[in-house]
Write a structure and sequence with these properties.
A hairpin with a 4-residue loop joins strand 6 (64-69) and strand 7 (74-78). This protein is mainly beta. The protein has one helix spanning 289-297, and strands at 3-4, 17-27, 30-37, 42-45, 53-58, 64-69, 74-78, 81-84, 92-97, 103-112, 115-124, 129-134, 139-145, 151-160, 163-173, 180-183, 189-194, 200-205, 212-217, 223-225, 233-238, 244-249, 256-261, 268-269, 278-287.
């Protein structure tokens, strides 16, 4: 049985951590941020109305959520306090936390004569100061830090004659130098994310003729398809122990969150009880103060 709740706690210890999957869902006419406790299938609604909210990301210190809005802004939510991340140029999306939770990377877009472009930016959370991290021809999306912070992975869409030709998986070192392509000419490759042990990349690719979830070695050389479905499978994220993967699929006829073992076995729908599309998952731990704050407010 699936339960909906406005209170999700782990007892009276507010400093305890709760394992959660955060995601964006379209309910009541707006995209808002929701949380799911996978251990007991309880859902918790964090935001209501206002701007559309997409791609929530849990900070590694378990205290803060970042998300992007349809206005091209990045917002931070911590213990009920909401503020915009300053120092960015606007038209930003795809927030990703640094391992020490001090910075957020994101892709910031520009549009010149109808041609889209983007660069990677880094914003310091405490100082509210941002700077360009990587300028590269093409459209950069989906940044993701390595666990030790030494690299960022991202997808790069090469544009030719005003049309996107293909999208590949790249990496760049933490100083913004030595960018190189890891997975090229394998269809459109998007949503890269590295495992917590730093050994395996997950990403989505349509090289098989349909968008599926793939797993690759850290250097991109060994690649395995781990889903096989006529539906669209995309947006993979590792569980905290790297044993499972949450992803977005249209297998139910709409966008739902599904979970499977890391080798692709035992896929199951997590959000079938929701009333609208569910996308943009992230999986981690958050302090239960997040939930207790909402309990006090209601």
């Amino acid at each position: 049985m699936v339960h909906f709740s406005s209170i999700v706690t782990a007892g009276d210890n507010h400093d305890a951590l709760a394992e959660v999957i955060v995601f964006s869902s379209y309910q009541d006419g707006n995209w808002d941020v929701w949380l799911l406790k996978p251990d007991d299938q309880r859902f918790f609604r964090l935001t209501r109305g206002g701007d559309e909210k997409h791609r929530p990301a849990i900070s590694p210190d378990h205290e803060t959520l970042a998300w992007a809005t349809n206005r091209g802004e990045i917002w931070l939510w911590k213990e009920g306090h909401l503020e915009r991340l300053e120092g960015l140029p606007g038209h930003c999306n795809f927030p990703a936390w640094s391992p020490d939770a001090t910075e957020v990377a994101c892709a910031c877009f520009s549009f010149n004569h109808g041609i889209e472009d983007s660069n990677l930016w880094l914003a310091n959370v405490e100082r509210g100061a941002g700077s360009v991290f990587l300028i590269q021809p093409g459209i950069i999306k989906y940044p993701a830090f390595s666990p030790d912070g030494s690299f960022l992975f991202y997808s790069l869409a090469i544009v030719g004659s005003r049309t996107v030709v293909h999208e590949d998986i790249w990496q760049v070192s933490s100083d913004g130098k030595h960018s190189k392509c890891l997975i090229a000419k394998q269809g459109d490759c998007i949503h890269p994310v590295i495992s917590h042990d730093g050994r395996w990349l997950l990403y989505a690719s349509d090289i098989s003729g349909n968008m599926e979830i793939w797993k690759a070695s850290r250097d991109g050389h060994r690649r395995y398809r781990i889903t096989s479905s006529p539906a669209l499978d995309t947006s993979p994220r590792w569980s905290p122990d790297d044993r499972e993967v949450v992803f977005v699929s249209t297998r139910s006829g709409r966008y739902d969150l599904w979970v499977m073992e890391a080798d692709g076995n035992r896929p199951r729908n997590l959000t079938g009880a929701m009333q609208g599309d569910c996308v943009d998952p992230d999986w981690g731990f958050m302090k239960t103060d997040v939930f207790m704050h909402e309990k006090r407010r209601e």
